[in-house]
Amino acid sequence: MQEPFIYVSNPDELHYADSPGPNGIQVTQQQGSHAIFAVRVPFIPSFMTSDFTRTLAGAEMSRINLITLRQVRFLNDLINARIIADGSSAFDLRFIAQPSSIPGRPTSIEIVFLGKVFHANRNQAKNLCWNLWRKFRSHYPLEDPFNYPLAPVTSEEELLYYLLPIPIETVGQRQILELRKFEDVDPYVGDNMTGYFPHPFSPVVDASAFGRFLETLAQQEQPCVVSICLQPTALFQEELLLINQLLSRYRAITATATASHGWVELYRKERFEDLQRTFAPLINKRNHLFKIKIQLIGANYAPEDVLEALGSELIENTTPEPRQWVREAPLNDHELEVARYNFAFLEHGPWGKTQVDGVAARIRYLVDTMQAAGAFRLPIPPESGYLPGLEVRDEPFVLPPKRPDNNEAHISLGQIIHRGIITEQPFEISVRELNRHGLIAGATGSGKTNTCLHLLAQLWAQHQVPFLVMYPIDKPDYRLLMADPQIADQLLIFTLGDETTTPFRFNPFHVAEGMLLKTHLSLLMRCFMAAFSMWDPLPAIYRAALRQVYANAGWNLEHGKGGCGLPTPTMADFYTTLVAVSDAMTAGYDEEAKGRVRQSAEIRIRDLLLNAGTVVNTNSPAPLSEVLNRPTIMELGRVGSPEDSALIMAFLLVQLTQELQSRYKRLPVAQRGQQLHITLIEEAHRLMAAGHGKNEDLGDARGRGGEDFANILAEVRGYGEGILIAEQIPTQLVSGALGNTTLKLMHRLEDQESFKLFCEVMNLNERQREFVRSLGQGQVIVRDHDSRPVFVQVGNYLDRFQTSSDLPLIDDSDAAVKALMARCGITIGTAIPWEPPAVTQHTEGDLALDPQTAAREILARDGQVLPDALQDALSGMGNSMKLRSQVEQVCRQRFGQHPNYPQVRRAYLLLAAERMQRSGVPVDDRILNDLVGTTP
User: Fold this and answer.
1) What is the extent of the structural domain holding 917?
2) What is the pLDDT of residues 96-152, one digit of tens each?
3) Which of 521, 516, 494, 526 has its CA nearest to residue 624?
4) For residue 840, what are the CA distances in angstroms to 251, 531, 843, 846, 900?
5) pLDDT for 690 beyond 80
6) pLDDT value for 936
7) 221 φ/ψ angles, rounded to the nearest 5 degrees
8) Which ranges carry the Helicase HerA-like C-terminal domain (predicted)?
9) Can you state the percent helix, strand and coil of the chain, rounding each to 5?
10) Same domain, 240 and 327
């Protein structure tokens, strides 16, 4: 828990000190400093009855009694503050009501405790106040099952607000009231002292306790504050003697009245019993008492109705003899000055009229802990969980058991939240454990990107662990790292697919030094399977083409290894080989079937070369020595279609993991354990999608490819590679991506299936499941080493480098990225220009002029598989604006030069939708109508 700010006043302030004197209890004014701390109660715990089943039968009244008794115990402990500063310490519980500035919004109520010590020496006052704070904290009901939260006020500005929520100089006589005990005197005795007793407070302890008071306070149309101030004290010997004399004297009068046997006898007996009930607690608890002061202040007028409601809480008026209380208001400037000073400095200066004086002057203000608890207590919510003006929360997450000492290198996820309060205890993640992989799940706006940035920045700044981010979205989120002075100098940012900024090129067919070719062939095939939907015989054609393209370059398919000096095929070479292999393997097919297979086989690589040939069609390998040794961002949002970006991500991961594996094998055994690199994959479902959706067979095929790829990533941990997967909808991922990740972070999830899945994974109970439905931004659930869920507030990385409007503090434009990379001196290979070969049998000129006929011919060429972008768009999956652009790209590539292009486009989309519906794939009619009605 944080330490509070201690406010220390000027050394010329006053303290009203009580002491016995020759004429009774006298009040002297001492000069010195007031030292004050403040702590907020940010919310009220819901006190679910189930929390108390260990000690109770579960009855509502038992629940309230137990919580009330715990608060009485708290007050009993606070009385011992006299040991710290006898007569000069005080505690103030304040309820501050602030009407909303927005019409129709309810009034909010804040609860704050103030603690005060007075001393003639300013420094000593502050030191004593620290001791008072530690005492307050040690006795406060923080423990289970009570869990009242406590948030120390750490700034002077905030403390001064709680000390004077209404500027004290603006408070006039008609704005301040005090609630005091009613002083009862015997009218049939000649003096006020004989038979005198103040009506004791008898607090209400039931299921509605404090409810009426809070309801009235929450209805206020002006700012107002209720202050219940307690000063620990004890009876002076003179007061103890006087009380015993009052009892003895009235006992004697009662005995005299008994002889008359009239109404006076009954009256005196009843009154003597009242005196005994009033004074017996003061005598028995003479060393454990408080002086009480209850003040109510309104910004514009005295809150009379709040006073009435609070008075009702203090006096249980359902008894045969209801007691009374009185209101007191300043009648002149002097009384107002004392009342205001009392409020500002937690003082108990006397003012106002009283029935008695001398030794009896203080008796009216003395209370035991049970009486004090009538007002100086925290609300207890009913089973409904509603308290007017206050936030009631069920906070089911607690601090984990003592975590093992972590002497290894680690990073901090954030601060652990215990019962709704952010603690100072960090949740630490071992850096070495990150190569067991992690899954970071969260809906848009949940703080997922901030979490990723927070972790990655620590990896490099604190431990020099290089990382790579694959970001398939055209947004500058990760460019914020340019603002981090601990990262910016070494940061690399590549804009794949954008040749005008900082392009990146690599040859997917490059085999790392010492790696077997046949292993690389298998990995390339898994890339294609994970990114593309393939139906038989396409997988066999791709495998054969991969082997053939390397054989054409002179490679030994069985024993060949990277680094042998042989030429490496390019993507253009693979396209040419793929077409030839497809023709050879379908030689026995009829012409229509042969055309479908050939078109389906080559169309994907043709589209890849047209859309992203500048990225993957090069003779040069990737500059992996730089990428693997520095913090690097790969922006893939400008590549084009989701399939192409997924395939490039897969190719990149293969290149990176093989290079790491090659390095690992070349390292001395003693140094291998030191190799560590982290790769973060955003929107990983593009690469590791579960096998459902579109078409059952094709979806399963792609799902198997994604599963294979997930398994590959699981294996790379042995070479020092850790994979972090960031995903909005985790259930879109293959099971391997879920099962092969040890670290799992759960932000707010909107997708219900993903929510249910993570609730199971995190071992959440029913109350915790209900709670995590509304996780705040930057809040996560993570499993501890013992598999228990832990609630964490992630460190806020974004706010370090953004304005309050979420705008970056640095220039994150393409020009800024280009300038950043110009300083790096990294050489990127040259792209090989590629033009699609003329295909005589399938040119647009061969298409029929009739739009309907032309559309059927185009679908026939597509074979059994429609382009993924087209299916995604017609199914309503993904961003509609982006998918519309991709649909237009698909149409332009296939028949963009047709003289009747708009009509062919419309017919093609309608026929494609019809084919999807026949295959059982849903079509979004609204999107279809929008697409066919769009004039390109």
Assistant:
1) 840-932
2) 999 988 888 889 999 999 999 999 999 999 999 999 999 999 999 988 888 899 999
3) 494
4) 125, 29, 6, 8, 20
5) no
6) 47
7) -100, 10
8) 424-469
9) 45, 20, 40
10) yes
